[in-house]
UniProtKB/TrEMBL annotation:
<dbReference type="InterPro" id="IPR037119">
    <property type="entry name" value="Haem_oxidase_HugZ-like_sf"/>
</dbReference>
<dbReference type="GO" id="GO:0005737">
    <property type="term" value="C:cytoplasm"/>
</dbReference>
<feature type="domain" description="DUF2470">
    <location>
        <begin position="158"/>
        <end position="227"/>
    </location>
</feature>
<dbReference type="InterPro" id="IPR019595">
    <property type="entry name" value="DUF2470"/>
</dbReference>
<protein>
    <submittedName>
        <fullName>Uncharacterized protein</fullName>
    </submittedName>
</protein>
<feature type="domain" description="CREG-like beta-barrel">
    <location>
        <begin position="10"/>
        <end position="148"/>
    </location>
</feature>
<dbReference type="Pfam" id="PF10615">
    <property type="entry name" value="DUF2470"/>
</dbReference>
<dbReference type="InterPro" id="IPR012349">
    <property type="entry name" value="Split_barrel_FMN-bd"/>
</dbReference>
<dbReference type="Pfam" id="PF13883">
    <property type="entry name" value="CREG_beta-barrel"/>
</dbReference>
<dbReference type="InterPro" id="IPR055343">
    <property type="entry name" value="CREG_beta-barrel"/>
</dbReference>
Length: 242
């Protein structure tokens, strides 16, 4: 189905990027939107997690009106009108979850120092509707029922995949990042595993390996990683022959 492909493309874009424009309802200039750039990550289910200061203007706005939007786009593209972008509309709410905290800090290790200020807290933006533009002529609304992913038992499976790759497949990940991202790594570590792809830390850089197709089981995730490894090995062998 075309819808499934658009959702996969939209989620891939959201996972590949690390910051977006958060729009809130201004409390100091009533009736006007207020935009700010904030880091985020998307949960397996499809909600966005942000870590923001309680004294920041956007946080004050959220406390006055929790209805927000986040616009995410590929800033590396030359033509912003032709590149993909996603606007997620939803409600922001405080969240206190150990798994969320661990995931966020693994992707944004610099945020660990914010914990010492005591005024940063996690908010979850629960998706209500999503607008995806994949370029000229590719404009779609995605309902939350289609956007959300069933995550029953996924956290355990995800943790097992990450642990297994880090303990047993360092060589494979090194080949993958060299093939996919042209990075020669000293240290590689998998940080997360989702149905659409995985995050890996390559020395001090974090990259996102998008799968070719969306997965619905841990077995399919492993198959995608095996395929990426085989492709990397084939490319490496071909380069040596040439």
């Amino acid at each position: 189905m075309k819808l499934d492909k658009y959702i996969f493309d939209a989620k891939t874009l959201v996972r590949q990027q690390h910051s977006g424009v958060l729009s809130t309802h201004s409390q100091s200039v009533e009736g006007y939107p207020f935009g700010s750039v904030v880091p985020y990550f998307m949960t397996t289910q499809g909600n966005l997690i942000i870590y923001i200061s309680q004294i920041a203007q956007h946080t004050r706005n959220i406390k006055g009106n929790p209805k927000v939007s986040m616009t995410i786009f590929d800033s590396m593209q030359d033509d912003s009108q032709a590149s993909g972008r996603v606007t997620l509309l939803g409600d922001a709410e405080l969240i206190d979850n150990e798994n969320v905290t661990a995931q966020y800090l693994s992707l944004f290790p610099q945020a660990k120092s914010y914990q010492q200020t005591h005024d940063f807290m996690f908010y979850q933006i629960k998706a209500e509707r999503i607008r995806y533009i994949g370029g000229f002529g590719k404009i779609f609304w995605i309902n939350k029922a289609d956007w959300f992913t069933d995550v029953e038992q996924w956290l355990h499976a995800s943790s097992e995949i990450v642990q297994h790759m880090n303990e047993d497949h360092q060589d494979a990940m090194t080949l993958i990042v060299e093939h996919q991202f042209r990075l020669r790594a000293t240290n590689v570590a998998m940080l997360s595993a989702f149905f659409e792809g995985v995050h890996m830390q390559v020395d001090k850089q974090i990259v996102y390996l998008a799968f070719d197709t969306p997965c619905t089981t841990a077995k399919q995730v492993r198959e995608q990683l095996v395929a990426a490894t085989h492709a990397a090995r084939s490319a490496s062998t071909l380069a040596m022959v040439n």
